[in-house]
Write a structure and sequence with these properties.
four-stranded mixed sheet, alpha+beta, about 325 residues, globular, 11 helices
Length: about 325
Amino acid sequence: MSEWCGWPVVSETTAWEAAQQILAEAELSDGLPLVPPTQKRLEAMVAGIAQRSESHGSMPPMFGDITPETVAYQCVIAGCRPAELPVVLAAAQATLEPDFNLLGIATTTGTACVALCVHGPLARQLGVNSGTNCLGPGNRANACIGRALQLCIRNIGGARSDIGDMATMGQPGKYTFCFAERSDGPLPTLTARHGLGSDASAITVMGISGTAEVLPGDGEGATPEAILSPIVAGMRAAIIMSGMSRKNERGEQVFLLPLEMAEKIARHDGWDVGRIQRYVFEEGQGVARAPDAIHPIVTGGAGYKMTYLPIWGGGSQMVMRKL
């Protein structure tokens, strides 16, 4: 049997069941079936990539080498298409920023995982879901891109249960967590707020503890305050639950607004993204380090239910990369 960066390459004639056994014995499996990594699939994944073995850094906790080839292997077994490799590679590199704190996220006994948001034309080109059920099943791009990033953390970084990954319980987001930002909302996109342009192709990685459904304070939310006040309450509760209340410093906050809720807020005079951030910051009395560290992201389908993504209480700074 041949190898790719030290991992097994199976032949085209290898039975599916045999391929799964080979990958499981190599400790490459996340527990779900994997696409057999044949030489043909691997070569197709890196076709046109220059300097395939060039190091892009060492991934904690066991500090394996991130290269186009090592990431390509995870993309193949996760079910990605070749056009998705640059997204996964950029996301893997982004997690290495010191302030992101991947070492802490990967090794904590808590429920932290890495969430990936894809922005702009590339998200639409790849078909990354920013509509109905964008955080759930049913979309191949979301599932496979997110899974490939998690497999990078597991197989390159070495975050395996009882070795690098010490999570007491973990969470389903450690299988896959990938979605796209909508570009048709009334608020400036996250890329615009970061100076990359209103519709730039980019990725953002976030270290989060989970998801929480949030409803407006009066049903469908007649006012911005009614829409946002439950978000503030959720943030304050999360600080207590995560133990952050024992710390003096505060970090960032992220919440997802469906288009309908974003439009309801924007219809009120003066309620731009800056006012949203100031309202949440002032009402929250210390939920973030500053108003601009509060990040509403417009995504999802029809309806008025929002999602709060609590940043991991151990400390993590979201990182964006232009593609």
